[in-house]
């Protein structure tokens, strides 16, 4: 697809916001105007919260395209990359809607990026222990996953560690990222509730079509239930290629002891999460 990059677009693509991530003045006005041109569906899920499966169904439903919206995926703690969005809003990258799947915290700079383009992200609440259990499965099965980590380095001898040692590592090294992730999104949802679509994993298991419809509607890409069911059926048939593990609630109890759960509970307590969120996460 050919696009016209005028001098203003080039300057915008390679300009930087303020140190705190804020866009100001004519720079902000230009980006905000760009954001009105095309829709973006952003799944800002934590790892192992069914994001890959749900994004595939969304792409099928809206005839969209998955686009890497960050400079690099390694490390999995995403920060959005401005040139990608300028390119997309000016007509590049894909014909249909851009669908993004990023493991991104709602830190202040990320919030300002979303707001300047009026991007309204979707997140998923799932018990943290269940996500960590699935993450451990992935680390044991995939060298690539071990290279990426989760904002930390995975030891070279990880697969030789005992089950208890791996569980300790998950709680000590991976769980703090999850606690911070949900704390940032809980704060953002409190400050700007209309901007965030908060899904629940238990609802996905009970009625996946309704959950997909909620996500699409939130992003301005509404599809009816039949279209959502059709898209989900295709994704379900391809689930083995979509990082879909077990999709079972309560798996964390098979991996972690009560001492692990106690440490995880304390991490979440530091952040004073809303009761409705904590009930979903622990």
Short structural description:
54% of the residues lie in helices and 6% in strands. With 282 residues, it is mainly alpha-helical.
Could you please describe the fold and organization of this structure?
- With 282 residues, this protein is mainly alpha-helical.
- It is 54% helix and 6% strand.
- The strands form two sheets. The chain has a three-stranded parallel β-sheet with strand order 1-3-2, with helices on one face. A two-stranded parallel sheet has the order 4-5.
- Helix 3 packs across helix 11 (225-237), helix 8 packs parallel to helix 13 (258-270) and helix 10 (208-218) crosses helix 11.
- The mean pLDDT is 90.
**Major sheet: arrangement of strands:** 1-3-2
The helix-and-strand class reads mainly alpha
Q: What's the main sheet like?
A: 3 strands, parallel
Quaternary status: single chain
Count, helices: 14
The Cα radius of gyration reads: 19 Å
The rounded distance between the terminal residues' Cα atoms is 46 Å
Strand content: 5-15%
Parts with pLDDT < 50 across at least 5 consecutive residues: none
Instruction: Tell me, rounded to a whole number, the average pLDDT.
Output: 90
Global morphology: globular
Output the keywords.
282 residues; mainly alpha; 3-stranded parallel beta sheet; two-stranded parallel ribbon; 14 helices; 54% helix; globular
Chain-wise SSE layout:
Blueprint: H1 7-13, H2 25-35, E1 40-43, H3 51-62, E2 65-66, H4 82-89, E3 98-101, H5 108-117, E4 122-125, H6 128-141, H7 143-148, H8 163-191, E5 197-200, H9 201-206, H10 208-218, H11 225-237, H12 252-255, H13 258-270, H14 275-281
Parallel strand pairs: 1-3, 2-3, 4-5
Helix pairs in contact: 3-11, 6-8, 8-13, 10-11
């Amino acid at each position: 697809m050919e696009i016209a990059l005028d001098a203003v677009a080039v300057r915008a693509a390679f300009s930087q916001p303020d140190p705190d991530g804020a866009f100001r003045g004519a720079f902000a006005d230009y980006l905000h105007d760009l954001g009105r041109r095309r829709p973006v569906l952003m799944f800002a899920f934590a790892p192992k919260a069914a994001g890959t499966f749900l994004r595939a169904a969304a792409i099928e439903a809206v005839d969209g395209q998955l686009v890497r919206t960050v400079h690099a995926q390694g490390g999995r703690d995403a920060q959005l990359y401005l040139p990608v969005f300028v390119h997309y809003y000016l007509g590049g990258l894909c014909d249909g809607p851009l669908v993004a799947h990023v493991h991104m915290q709602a830190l202040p700079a990320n919030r300002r990026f979303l707001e300047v383009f009026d991007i309204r992200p979707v997140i998923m609440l799932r018990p943290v222990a269940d996500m960590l259990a699935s993450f451990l499965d992935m680390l044991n099965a995939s060298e690539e996953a071990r290279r990426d980590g989760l904002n930390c380095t995975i030891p070279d001898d990880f697969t030789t560690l005992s089950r208890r040692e791996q569980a300790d590592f998950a709680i000590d090294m991976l769980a703090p990222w999850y606690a911070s992730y949900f704390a940032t999104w809980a704060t953002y949802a409190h400050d700007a509730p209309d901007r965030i679509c908060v899904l629940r994993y238990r609802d996905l298991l009970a009625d996946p079509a309704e959950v997909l419809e909620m996500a699409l509607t939130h992003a301005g890409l509404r599809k009816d239930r039949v279209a959502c069911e059709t898209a989900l059926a295709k994704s379900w048939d391809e689930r083995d290629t979509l990082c879909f593990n077990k999709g079972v609630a309560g798996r964390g109890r098979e991996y972690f002891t009560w001492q692990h759960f106690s440490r995880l509970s304390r991490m979440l307590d530091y952040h004073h999460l809303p009761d409705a969120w904590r009930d979903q996460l622990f």
